[in-house]
Amino acid sequence: MAITVNFDSPVSIEEQVYQALRRVVATREIAHGENLPTVRQLASDLGVHWTTVARAYRRLATDGLIVVRRGRGATVCAPRSESRASATVRATVRQKLMEAVTEARLGGMPLEQVEAALRREVALLKGEPV
Amino acid sequence: MAITVNFDSPVSIEEQVYQALRRVVATREIAHGENLPTVRQLASDLGVHWTTVARAYRRLATDGLIVVRRGRGATVCAPRSESRASATVRATVRQKLMEAVTEARLGGMPLEQVEAALRREVALLKGEPV
Amino acid sequence: MAITVNFDSPVSIEEQVYQALRRVVATREIAHGENLPTVRQLASDLGVHWTTVARAYRRLATDGLIVVRRGRGATVCAPRSESRASATVRATVRQKLMEAVTEARLGGMPLEQVEAALRREVALLKGEPV
Amino acid sequence: MAITVNFDSPVSIEEQVYQALRRVVATREIAHGENLPTVRQLASDLGVHWTTVARAYRRLATDGLIVVRRGRGATVCAPRSESRASATVRATVRQKLMEAVTEARLGGMPLEQVEAALRREVALLKGEPV
DNA sequence: GTGGTCTAGACCACG
DNA sequence: GTGGTCTAGACCACA
Q: Residue B85 pLDDT > 90, yes or no?
């Protein structure tokens, strides 16, 4: 599980760890029923304090992505099946996409390339060859 | 120019204002050669401190999106033409797209709907009917 | 005896088991003179460590609700008769009631409904039809 | 605003502060639009670390009871009007009432006295003479 | 001045 | 050993 944090980023370390772990769960790199690394282990790998990692784990637990139990570590929950997504989820996704196209245009990247890049990301997540 | 800030968000007000203004420039809602509102005007509209807005304007100027001249306000620069985007831009766009698909999967939103949503965003930015 | 524990709760498993057993004794679901399940039996039913259950039993014994004797298990003691309650008990009860009305008001629940709900709880404890 | 914390309690200091502040908001001791004390002020009053108080404030903000803004302190939000309470709220209230009657019976407190005590709490919250 | 985050390291509860 | 909480105090962003 290769995750890194950028100490110079305006986004907090906790947030970076949280987002990276959401990704790990979404890709099923660590599957349903398996454990994440212990907070102290991951913290030492990343070079951050273990309480910072523990805070990120708590948020994942609040989201229902993992179950955290003292003395037993953090276990990944069963994934949600595809279904009618909530309005909140759709709004979040839309926001991210809007940011992507905004960055693309300001950076002079043709919008067709953005669509191609999205197809690559979708294929990656599905585990298909790109 | 309708921009709003969320005071409860973990992302700073400065960052929210900065991002919203990037969007305004990207959509050409305020076109090349026109002025943004004054720092104090926008601050008062949003109910935030004027120094916060000023910091956001400075960042836009650093990005080369606007030029700020004493006594003449903040003027939007000519847009970049589409071209070969820098690696940085492509990485940023890719990151946003990755976050979008991650959120979609965790929220149970079918990935095909993400592609459809992106097409809508692209059309919106181009000013085409959706 | 159907008791469950919530592994995600901020309140410890020991505390949950302890509270649930207090409830079981109060309702006389296991009556005066009868035995609680063995520590290892209950632990295995709940999927928790047996030492956790043992700690809860110790607390019940300290409270005088059960007696634990080697080789004979944990036996429920005779209930206290109704009498003038100690100041401590009255303070505890008052605290719980205060929390209940606080939650009700913050959640928009009319306070009359709280009184009705209490009458239901009293009837339940007495074993009357609700 | 007289709140105290019990350092020997099994419930965490953060939780105690959080509950006490929920009470303060519910009773409108600090009304809609007013500010709570600053985190450092309250922490110093209680003799705890200010980050502990800050965590409690964050939870209140998550609950939508207050709005916390850097440099401006924590402001109480408008109260919810009475309405049909959610199932979650009703379950929470019911749980608290169940704990109250359990404690009463185990402590030998007549259940009629519990009902009387609840009426007092309701009157207190409504600001009526008791 | 406000609150937000991070590190450091203590102590505790749980398995 | 696990994670949870607290203190202590640094540094940052915002008003």
A: no
Chains C, B in contact, 3 or more Cβ pairs below 8 Å? no
Residue C128 has pLDDT above 80, yes or no: no
**Interacting residues of A127 by C-beta distance below 8 A, sequence separation 6+:** none
Q: Are A74 and A35 in contact (CB under 8 A)?
A: yes
Give the whole-angstrom CA distance, residue B64 versus residue B22: 11
Compute the mean pLDDT over every residue in chain D, rounded to the nearest whole number. Answer: 91
Cα–Cα dist C106/D60, whole Å? 11
Helices and strands, number each (H, E), in chain B = 5, 2
φ and ψ at residue D6, rounded to 5 degrees: -105, 110
pLDDT at D102 over 90: yes
Give the protein-side footprint of strand F (Cβ within 7 Å): A 10, 38-41, 51, 54, 57-58, 61, 68-74; B 12-15, 48-49, 51-52, 55; C 10; D 12-15, 47-49, 51-52, 55, 69-72
Taken in order of first residue, the domains within chain A and their CATH numbers are 13-76 (1.10.10.10), 87-126 (no CATH)
Tens-place pLDDT, residues B13-58:
888 999 999 999 999 999 999 999 999 889 988 888 889 999 999 9
Rounded Cα–Cα distance for residues C102 and D22 (Å): 7
Q: What's the CA gap between B65 and B58, in Å, rounded?
A: 10
- Mapped onto helix, strand or coil, the DSSP state of residue A73 is strand
What DSSP string describes B1-29? Answer: ------TT-SS-HHHHHHHHHHHHHHTTS
- Whether A61 has its CB under 8 Å from any CB of chain C: the answer is yes
* D73 sits in which H/E element: strand D73-76
In this prediction, residue C3 has a pLDDT band, given cuts at 50, 70 and 90, of: confident
DSSP-derived 3-state class of residue D119: helix
pLDDT at A130 over 70: no
| Length in residues, chain D | 130
pLDDT at D130: 62
Q: Which of B93, B109, B122 sits opposite A103 (nearest CB)?
A: B93
Using a threshold of 3 CB pairs under 8 A, tell whether chains B and D touch: yes
Distance separating alpha carbons of residues C73 and C59, to the nearest angstrom:
15
pTM, to two decimals: 0.85
Please report residues of D whose CB lies closer than 8 A to that of C108. 80-85, 89
**CA–CA gap between residue B69 and residue A85 (Å, rounded):** 47
Q: Do C26 and D102 touch (CB under 8 A)?
A: yes
